[in-house]
From TrEMBL:
Pfam families: NTP_transferase. GO terms for biological process: UDP-alpha-D-glucose metabolic process. This is UTP--glucose-1-phosphate uridylyltransferase. It comes from Yimella lutea. InterPro entries: GalU_uridylyltTrfase_bac/arc, NTP_transferase_dom, Nucleotide-diphossugar_trans.
Length: 314
């Protein structure tokens, strides 16, 4: 069942059931979503993004070894009481913030059968309303308004909406790629006509990669239920969206919002470190000192790579 384009987007789904194998051994006992980016776990940035877009009902799709996610978004009465006794209001505010972002719910995926299968676990919670899906590997800078722009695009045209970003040709094989056509009167909103999962550069229909933000019409659930396992033997959300894009009879088709702002990929070790540095230099408390140290350090032999024997064995 599709929803009206005028229906508000009030719920978000955050798939967080992955094993985080690219971050082993760090993610052996700690969910990758809980790895810190400066002084907050990566997953908190994602929930804060949903809250900025007016969404205070969040469902996380989790799996085994993810209990710390629930603990983080719950109240910690003993810790709060200790901070109150110390009159440490600033730390108390930080601790309480994660629990005050909204109503965060949790459901287990059970089996790791793909992103499409994870989204399908949200059907009972979401119901017949449009909803957002935010992948925890992609952090969108807090000064950007990508999710709000996607919700607004759905409000004008209906259907489902994916976030698109231009990437170099030699990187398109790492993403789903969209074929698009322009829409009269729109600048960075396009109509998606087809999608290809991780194509070779020579086979890619464009340089527009699908990144981890979606605003989905509830009709996606019926499509997912009929979607056979695809790449990797998993139920792919891209396959269901492709079916919607090619048949606009139910759900209004698929739009793309081209994002040109700052995005941090925390699913890759190198990009994770880049995200930490970029956010640290802007931190309101330590940013100035860290930026000053970083500028001095890169001029040293160690920072420039001139020092011998500086690589650590892992």
């Amino acid at each position: 069942m599709s929803a009206s384009r005028n229906d508000p987007v009030l719920k978000a789904v955050i798939p967080a059931a992955g094993l985080g194998t690219r971050f082993l051994p760090a993610s052996k006992a700690i969910p990758k979503e809980m790895l810190p980016v400066v002084d907050k776990p990566a997953i908190q940035y994602v929930v804060e993004e949903a809250a900025r877009a007016g969404i205070d009902d969040v469902l996380m799709i989790t799996g085994r070894n993810k209990a710390s996610l629930e603990d983080h978004f719950d109240r910690h009465w003993e810790l709060e009481a200790a901070l109150e006794r110390k009159l440490d209001d600033e730390k108390l505010r930080r601790v309480r913030k994660s629990a005050d972002l909204g109503n965060v719910h949790f459901v287990r995926q059970g089996e790791p059968l793909g992103l499409g299968h994870a989204v399908l676990q949200a059907k009972a919670h979401v119901g017949d309303a449009p909803f957002a899906v935010l992948l925890g590997d992609d952090l969108i800078d807090e000064t950007e308004h990508l999710l709000e722009d996607m919700i607004a695009a759905r409000g004008r045209h209906g259907g489902s909406v994916v976030a698109l970003m231009e990437v170099p040709a030699d990187q398109i094989h790492m993403y789903g790629c969209a074929a698009v056509e322009s829409i009269d009167g729109e600048t960075d909103v396009v109509r998606v006509t087809s999608m290809v999962e991780k194509p070779k550069a020579e086979d890619a229909p464009s340089n527009l990669a699908i990144i981890g933000r979606y605003v989905l019409d509830p009709s996606i659930f019926a499509v997912l239920e009929q979607t056979a396992p695809g790449r990797g033997g998993e139920i792919q959300l891209t396959d269901a969206l492709l079916a919607q894009a090619q048949s606009r009879n139910d759900g209004g088709g698929v739009l793309g919002v081209v994002f040109r702002g700052n995005r941090y990929d925390t699913g890759d070790r190198l990009d994770y470190l880049k995200a930490v540095v970029r956010l640290a230099v802007r931190h309101r408390e330590i940013g100035d000192d860290f930026r000053s140290w970083l500028g001095e350090w890169v001029e040293t032999d160690e920072g420039s790579g001139a020092a011998e024997g500086q690589q650590l064995k892992h």
